[in-house]
Each structure stands twice: as structure tokens, then as C-alpha cells.
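User: My collaborator sent over this chain with a note saying "see what the structure looks like." That's all I know about it. Can you take a look?
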Amino acid sequence: MLLLWKLLRHHISAAQLLAFFCANLVGMLIVLLALQFYRDVKPMFTGDDGLISNDYLIFSKCISTVGLGTTTFSSGEIADIESQPFTKRVGAFTASQYKVACSAGIGGVANFGTEMYFESVPDHFIDTDRSQWHFAEGDSVVPIVLPRSYLAIYNFGFAQSRSLPKISEGIISMIDMTVVMRGAGQYGRMRGKVVGFTNRLQTILVPQSFLDWSNALYAPNADASPTRLIVEVRNPADDAIARYAKQHGYDIDEDKLRAGKTTYMLRIVSGVIMCVGLLISLLSFLILMLSIYLLVQKNATKLQNLLLIGYSPARVSLPYQLLTIGVNLLVLVLAVLLLMWLRSFYMDMLWAMFPTMKDTSLVPAIVLGCLLTILVSLLNAIAIRRKVMAIWRG
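Assistant: Without extra context I'll predict from the sequence alone. Here is the result:
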């Protein structure tokens, strides 16, 4: 084996081997980087607080200047919206039908209080951590989700103009809140706890189970028909949404509709870039196979002589197969190291934009690299063996 390798290595072109190595490295790095980058940025784009989260629109009925007509949605109207091709799912807002007052303070001392209201939507429309988002009759604590814009208004408007301390999202959960509910001759007092903030819904949210229970207790005869609907659409760029809303007299937030169209186009661009990356990777692997084929073809005469003096095709093929396997393993190691190096640059920027973003694992990318290395090495070995057999038979 050693003597065979010494004979064959003199006929291996260093430039050709380098091209083989570079083509394989580029292809491997593109595939691994594309997969890892997609996994890293996916929470930013598709997460609940992401840049391209699920596309939700708020439907409400237009209010006339004379206040005529109903502003609530009937079950038939909701079913009609659900049946539209652009709709994925629909959720109804449920509003509190009783009087609600809230006081807040620190250390058991109330610093300020205000009248307020509660709304709820089905739990799967909530875009915050739902580990504390539950309520059952008999509980003494009401989970509350506030719009993030409310906190910004307080910090940069109310607090700044009155020289009050600014409050972070973490401090909010430490504030003592007392919720007082009155209606139908009933009176109730519970402790409120802010468990999260939402960017999706500009309202004060409580669990659906709490609002169903409290409405039945404090406003049993009130009309709880929804006045707003949250609709998850398949494609916010679909003109049918605006046409449907106009035909039925529904009001949609135009800013959300335009933002949805922008994010939909961003999805398309991201998909095109991924396809281009896969095409480049495929071409790199084809170049690699061509390099191996030319390497064996160049030494066809020497290989034929070795076969004629008694060497088997398997033994003649082995040095080239071991060479390609070694190069492929080196490519895998370098590709993983380069991936970690390149990832360190863009992850710092991602964490600066999304401090709460969770780190993703490199294991799937490494596993994919190992599978590609095995696949490419196997294809190379088969190509070399077939070429040597062709020379032997010829």
C-alpha cells in the first residue's frame, strides 16, 4: 500500500487538489452557514415578538357619525370571516361588562389608582410567555398583560414630565396591584400581577377563563357580543382583505396591513436567497465531483499499468479514496471552525437588537456537515471505483 501511494502521489496535481479542497470547503460552509443563520434569526422573524411574526389584523365595525347601527359581530358574521380564503383563524375580543378599578403601589402602600377595563382573546393569540397565563375559580391572583406602548407612554411622557422614576418591565412584576370589581350588586377584590407585555394588542389583557367567570358573576345579564375580532391571515398582501373589509363596512388598521405586506415580501426575498445558496452549494459539489474525475483521468495510463501487473481495482482505488476522505474530513473541521467564527460576528448584532433572544445550538449544523461529508465521500469513492473499473475493463 505504501509503495502504491508513493507511485501515485507523484502524479497528483497540487493545483487540482487545492481546487478540489476549496470547492468542497465553499460548498460545505455555504450550506452550514445558511442552516445556522436561518436557525439563529428565525426567532427574530417568526417569534411572537419577531419582526415577521404571524400576520394578525384587528377587524372592527365602522362607527357612523350619528351612532346608528350595531358595532358588535354576530356569530354569522364571524363564521363568514372564518370561511374566507385569506383567513387562517379568528378570535373574538371579550370585554369586561362591569366596573373595574385598579390601585398600584410598593410595600402595600397605594401610590395611585385609576378606573380601567379588561379584555381577553383566545390564549393562542397571546404573544408572551404563557407559563403564568392561567386562572381558575378560587384563585386570588389575576394575570395581566399590558401593551408595551403603555409602559413607553408612562416612562417618556407621564413620568418624565412629573419627575417620577422610570419603570422597567422587570420592576412592573414587583409592583403591588389591587383590582376591585363591582357589578350586579356584587363586590370583589383581587391581587393583580403583570406577567408580560404585548406588541400585538393595544389593550389590557386578562385570561379568557377569568373574564368568562367575572362577567358571569358581576354582569350576568350584559350583552357580551364581541366588538372586535383578531384575524390571522395567510397573506397580508392579498388585496381581497381590503376589498372584503370595504364591502362589509369593517375597519382594519391600515398600518398593520401595510406592515404585513412588507413582511410578506421580506419572506419571499429570504426564500429566494436561501434557494440561491442551495444552488451555489450544488454547483460546488458538482465541481468537486468533476475534480475527482479529472484527477483519475489524468493518471489513467499509470492506473492501467498497475492493473495489468496484477493490482486489483479495489487496491488501486484505495489511495484516491483515502485521499478524498481525508480532504473531506479536513473540510468539515475547517467549515465548522469558520462557521463558529462568522457566527460570533452576527450574533453580537442580533443580541443587541433582541436581548431576550435565546441562543441556538450548533449541533444540527454539525450533524448536517457530518452527513454531507459521509455522502460526498461515498459518492467520491463510488466515482473513483467506477472509473478505475472502466480503465481495467478497457
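A starting point for your reply to your collaborator: The two ends are 24 Å apart (CA to CA).
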